[in-house]
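Job type: complex structure
Entries:
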Amino acid sequence: MINFLANPERFTRLTRPLRPWLAGLAGLLFVWGLYLCFASPEDYQQGDTVRIMYVHVPAAWMGLAVYAAMGMASFFGLIFRHSLADAAAKAIAPIGAVFTALALVTGALWGMPMWGTPWQWDGRMTSELVLLLFYIGYIALHASIEDEARAARSTAILAMVGLVNLPIVHFSVQWWNSLHQGDSIFVKGGPTIGAPMLWPLFVMVAAYHVLTAWLFLVRLDSEILARKYRALRARLSFN
Amino acid sequence: MDLDMGKYVVFVWGCYGATALGLGGLILASLHTHMRRRKVLEALQAAADEVRK
């Protein structure tokens, strides 16, 4: 399947019809999710600030998930010389960077009224910042190397090194004392959040996933176009 | 549906505003780049076809 999709022409042909459907579905999920965000009850302790959870948690999850996808694509590119793998990793990196930045900003805005501080150098917040720095490093490194093959190799190694940070982000609230709350959804015995707050969260998580899939396909197609352009220009300059 | 965030208005709407800006900016930038690259490639392909003729 992976080899079948490795051909850029075939990949574009197969995924282009999907794009408008994904965009439409993402739009619908966001409308539904946002309605639920403001129709859900306020928390008995946190009041209305609990509504920050509906944009903060999906952004933080997507920051991690996108990095995992970027690391996997980099692995395929480096080890199996998968022709679309580097393009895929390069296309998805800015999406993950934006989600991680949003997780940090919304987390700081949530922290101000609840913790009395927007930032603390604890395990969760510091590892999340390190994740953002890995994204920025990846994007900057790719942009700074002109030779495509060399850029692909160097950035793939950087992306794979950064994978080490993912379990640190996830388990940081268990390993170290933190102002950040512990897991409350994927815990033994089921989520500790009530259903009226869980539903808006799940709809927003679905919206973020579909938006990411759509943005990824648009950005990957864009990257394929850029590579076609460079190849055609090189061919013309030889003739 | 309750849009009155009381004393937390700055924090809650600040978060939703930042999210709208971040995601909206990403969507616009991605679509703009895609359109620009498609146009540039089409122009180069047309030039290449002219050269071939």
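Summary: Chain A has a mean pLDDT of 92. Chain A touches chain B at residues 35, 38-39, 42, 47-49, 51-52, 55-56, 59, 94-95, 98, 101-102, 105-106, 109-110, 112-113, 211, 215, 218-219, 221-222, 225-226, 228-229, 232-233, 235-236, 239 (CB under 8 Å).
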